[in-house]
């Protein structure tokens, strides 16, 4: 289980997170929703070590992560799919996937076949440069790269952003498969309400750097939840 407890995060004098607490359980999909600029990506930066927190604790499988750099968190089993994908445009698809070898022991430095079962297009494009792929293909590559690290929790920042509907369905199937087949925890930040409604076991809604709603996915249809999500 990932536990975020009373976390604050600042960018200089600006406070992005205010006393945020949540849990992401193994074998479940936890979705964080909210309007633009409410702190969702800042929460994931805190979890993955991309930005230091000002107060509170973040722990995974009963081990505190505070102060650990991103590469150390990757070794602990945190796989990250950042907003905007951030694949290496001049490296081939195969080389992008192999970049996920960094936190692995020598015996584990291979690309799991599951990645190609989930995203067959990647296998047919191993020699193509990452920058030549479509946005949807790059998103699949970014998820595949995170899967290469053998994560215990997969953290995804708006994986449907700018993606065509057919690829969104593929990504949804992949996320559901990973939850059901591996039992990993999945922490998903998203603005696409229907995507979260279909996938999530637990939802949190953020507003102005705070958690303002939590509950099972069915609660997204309540008046309280809709009030915080309406632009």
UniProtKB/TrEMBL annotation:
SMART domains in alphabetical order: AAA
The UniProt record lists the keyword Cytoplasm: no
Gene Ontology terms, MF aspect: ATP binding; ATP hydrolysis activity; branched-chain amino acid transmembrane transporter activity
Residue span(s) of domain ABC transporter: 2-231
One BP term from GO: L-amino acid transport
Pfam families linked to this entry: ABC_tran
InterPro entries assigned: AAA+_ATPase (IPR003593), ABC_transporter-like_ATP-bd (IPR003439), ABC_transptr_urea_ATP-bd_UrtE (IPR017780), BCAA_Transport_ATP-bd_LivF (IPR052156), P-loop_NTPase (IPR027417)
Keywords (A to Z) from UniProt: Amino-acid transport, ATP-binding, Nucleotide-binding, Transport
Superkingdom of this protein's organism: Bacteria
Family: Belongs to the ABC transporter superfamily.
Official protein name in the record: Amino acid/amide ABC transporter ATP-binding protein 2 (HAAT family)
Species, as recorded: Neorhizobium alkalisoli
């Amino acid at each position: 289980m990932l536990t975020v407890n009373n976390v604050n995060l600042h960018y200089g004098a600006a406070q992005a997170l205010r006393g945020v607490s949540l849990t992401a359980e193994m074998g479940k999909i936890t979705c964080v929703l909210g309007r633009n600029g409410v702190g969702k990506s800042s929460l994931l930066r805190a979890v993955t070590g991309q930005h230091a927190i000002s107060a509170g604790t973040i722990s995974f499988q009963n081990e505190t992560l505070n102060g650990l750099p991103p590469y150390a968190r990757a070794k602990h089993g945190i796989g990250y799919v950042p907003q905007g994908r951030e694949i290496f445009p001049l490296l081939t698809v195969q080389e992008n996937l192999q970049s996920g070898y960094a936190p692995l022991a020598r015996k584990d430095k291979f690309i799991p076949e599951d990645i190609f079962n989930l995203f067959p297009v990647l296998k047919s494009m191993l020699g193509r440069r990452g920058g030549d792929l479509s946005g949807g293909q790059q998103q699949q590559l970014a998820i595949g790269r995170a899967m290469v690290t053998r994560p215990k929790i997969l953290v995804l920042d708006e994986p449907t952003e700018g993606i065509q509907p057919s690829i969104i369905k593929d990504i949804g199937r992949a996320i559901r498969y990973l939850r059901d087949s591996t039992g990993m925890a999945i922490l998903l930040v998203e603005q696409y309400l229907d995507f979260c409604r279909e996938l999530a076991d637990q939802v949190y809604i953020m507003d102005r750097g705070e958690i303002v709603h939590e509950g099972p996915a069915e609660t997204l249809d309540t008046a309280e939840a809709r009030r915080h999500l309406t632009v």
